Amino acid sequence: MKKIYALLILALGCMSYSYAQGTVSGDVFSDLEKTPVPGVSVYIKGEPKGAVTTDFDGNFKIKVQQNEGILVFSYVGFKTKEVSYSGTQKLTVSLTEEVSTLNEVVVVGYGSQKRSDVTGAISSVKSEEFNKGVVANAGQLIQGKVAGVNVTAASGEPGASQDIIIRGVGSLRSGTTPLYVVDGFALDNSNNGVASNPLNFINPQDIESIDVLKDASAAAIYGARGGNGVIVITTKKGSKGQTKINLSMTTGFSTLANKVDVFSADEFRKQVAAVNGSLKDGGANTDWQDELTRTGVSQNVNLSMSGGTDKSTYAASVGIDNQEGIYRKSDLKRYSGRLNLNQKALNDKFNVAFNMTATKLENLRPDTRTIVGNMLTMNPTDAISIDGQPNVNLSNDVLNPLISERIYSDETNNNRILANIAPSYEFIKGLTYKFNLGVDYSMTERDIQVLPYTSATNTTISTLNTIMTTNNNILYENTLTYNFNVKAHVFTVLAGHSYQKVQVNEKNYNFKGFPNNGVEPKNQIEAATELTTKSSSATENELQSFFGRVNYGYENKYLLTATMRADGSTKFGSNNKYGYFPSVALGWNITKEDFLKDSEIVNNLKLRASWGQTGVQEVPSKQTKTSYTESNSGYDTYPLDASTTSVSDYPYGSIYTRLANPNLQWEVSTQTNIGLDFSLFNNRLSGTVDYFNKISDNIILEVAPVDPIQPAPKYWTNIPNMKIKNNGIEVALDYSSDKSKDFSYSIGGNISFTENKVENSPYKILTTGAAQGSGQTGATINGVLNGHPLGSFYMLDFTGIGTDGLNQFADTNPDGTIKDDDRIVAGSALPDYIYAFYLNFKYKSFDLGLNFNGTGGNKIYNHVAMTSFNRGQLANSFNTTDRASQYLNEATTNSNTVSTRYLEDGSFLRLNNATLGYNLSPKLIGLDNVLDNIRFSVTGQNLFLITKYSGYDPEINTGTSVGEIQSFGIDYFSYPKSRTISFGLNAAF
């Protein structure tokens, strides 16, 4: 009997074992199109490591350990689905497409919303949509990705500063930069001592999404700092589930993208003779553009980890980024670390979020202006070196650029920590209090030095300029949010208080006369023969704010957002400490109406309208307060002692350096927006159309006092009635094919037309760009004129060369003479339109993405050509382009006057980014138990450019200003753009 029981138990065990080793199979189809979906991940719930994927026909087979259980079906673009199985049954599973544009979460000020509930003009770019390749900062990630946002790099230098202009330029000051908010912390745009882009401290690979708040309704919650728009950066967070480890490595190679067509050595010899010049023939054939540039090698390694439980999540990363520019001694190195934590407690009512980024930045910068000038004007018959040593006998006694490179350096070291902790507690259902405490601390040391050098023809005195800057930004915020429903009425009410304090300290020393002993000047300050200048400064600004917002929705059809913020700033006068910034927006989800809700063509249709006001407070500190200094020159002093015979012995007197203006207040930007969002044909085609009208008034400017007896040369004030208007249209369209096919594609793009105009300016012209260099300094190139865009070029109209060999200009008065009154408005540096488009293709495991961008209607003033490419230069054995020989009768003594002769079309089309990728299944190489995915990619940046501009690149913005007014569209010997090819490997564990 016992043997029978034993046999029965063994048989049952075998049966159970056979069930344990069973197989579940089936087919997966799309819900709408009833077509197979390949590539779907299928796994037993709780065991994602054992996942299998559906084949081309949507079939799958998976081994199961239990007779019953739950399978999880997951695929990008479809809603994740869980299906129960029993035994070895065959399953038929249908997946529903995810309407991502409606369900995606958009980060707004002090919260987030579903895209379907948004009433303002907000554009979002997710990490998978970012520009790829060698990228130093957040601005490069979204160039060409958002309608109405013009991202222009100041130069091609690694990590160069950028102008990010949202919906046109609305301020005269150099403060056109938007407000950046990183994980809820508002950055300050004040000086932190780093000459390159201040956003370089954020590792681009740590960023999950970037949301651009374009209209006043979206940005008004940031009040006095939202006038130039707001860019919200969200870093990657952890999520519950399996631990994820990601390793990425990239190596890039950068070369000079485009050359300026200067004369070769043979052409140069002929051209100098043709103008009867003095040829200094060194007997060589040197391409200085090749000799003074290099192939820059960039390397990036990034390791990240994330994971968590229902109560606690984490995300951490470390990164090393080393970018070499196309010039020697042009490098950007970044060492970064990030830690994001989230912890829940007390039945999930208490939540603590912690975010920290720590960065060490090392930036080595070349003497760009000198190098560009040398590349374009050095005599091509001179040899750069002789017997392996720099040639010291160059034409015109020019210092060999190899020596200039060796003795010059500009090195910056920056350490920065950005951290905030935000505990929150839900008192009752829907009512949550949140406290946000953050700090942004930056410490920078910058040394600009020239080593001593002496030769038979050149002597360089050693100098050192050392600058130490600390920037401390502290933020305290309290917010109370209440979410509640009253039947079909849904409310979200926000009330908050914010206090932010920024302290900037700077010490600046200039030394000269260091010995030539092999020790760098920065390491032997005590050896300097002279401390030429020294200065220090300290500023402290505070901003206290009270704000509130109400979001209301009825049946998800009718939406209302109302916002109010009051900002009090120490930057402004005692009579105007607080400014008030209201906004209101309406939304109508038309597809929720009965006449459209069952439409098979229109999947989403939403109408938006908004009005609101924001501000700009980007003025220097302390401008509302009187400032004095001491002087014993001119009428500032007189003798108190009758025996004094020399003015130098007179006592010092106190004089004004700045007048007080207690009435100074914010610039105000008032914006109206009407927009339409739509999705058609099962969400294959989606897009947005927006019309905006933005008027900036209360314009802040530094002007001379009206009083003829001027106690101070200038003071800051608001210009009455002066307005800067921007209005335009933005369009964005995207189309995606069926993603379930082996081959799929998506195409799309955006274009924005903006009209910019200045009205009621009391000045004939405010210069925004002026000429530089011997005999040119101060001559107006562009400026602010009534009835014209900002950055309008105002100059003489060049008509040719006269019989005397000199310039001829149009007499536009006409009065028979050529004077300043004959100048004309000859176009603007601001584009009439900006555009971008992309093409994405996917075939099985391969993918290809192409991104293009461009501008139209803008002009560029070629200052390089005006300074260097003239007949006089060529006659003196300096190289030029064929501009110098364009007019055969031009005199070598003809002046290079500011005129339309050097004004060029700045329109362009660029293949900005192209990436070819391949996703290798770890199963193919037997590593499926170790790796989740392996991706190889090759990316090209700035692969081709179509433009009529004759300089290095039409995308120039040197970041200069005249009288605190920003310059646009002038090529001041800008660092050229590079062409980069990079190779990437990404492994997910």
Automatic annotation (TrEMBL):
TM ranges: none
Domain TonB-dependent receptor-like beta-barrel positions: 408-943
Membrane topology value: Multi-pass membrane protein
Domain TonB-dependent receptor plug, chain residue ranges per copy: 115-230
The entry's keywords: Cell outer membrane, Membrane, Signal, TonB box, Transmembrane, Transmembrane beta strand, Transport
Signal peptide feature range: 1-20
Compartments, record wording: Cell outer membrane
Record-linked Gene3D superfamilies: Carboxypeptidase-like, regulatory domain (2.60.40.1120), TonB-dependent receptor, beta-barrel domain (2.40.170.20), TonB-dependent receptor, plug domain (2.170.130.10)
Main location as per UniProt: membrane
Cellular component per GO, a single term: cell outer membrane
Record carries keyword ATP-binding: no
Entries under InterPro entries matching the protein: Beta-barrel_TonB (IPR000531), Beta-barrel_TonB_sf (IPR036942), CarboxyPept-like_regulatory (IPR008969), Plug_dom (IPR012910), Plug_dom_sf (IPR037066), TonB-dep_OMP_SusC/RagA (IPR023996), TonB-dep_OMP_SusC/RagA_CS (IPR023997), TonB-dep_rcpt-like (IPR039426)
Family designation: Belongs to the TonB-dependent receptor family.
Protein name: SusC/RagA family TonB-linked outer membrane protein
Organism from which the protein derives: Flavobacterium cheongpyeongense
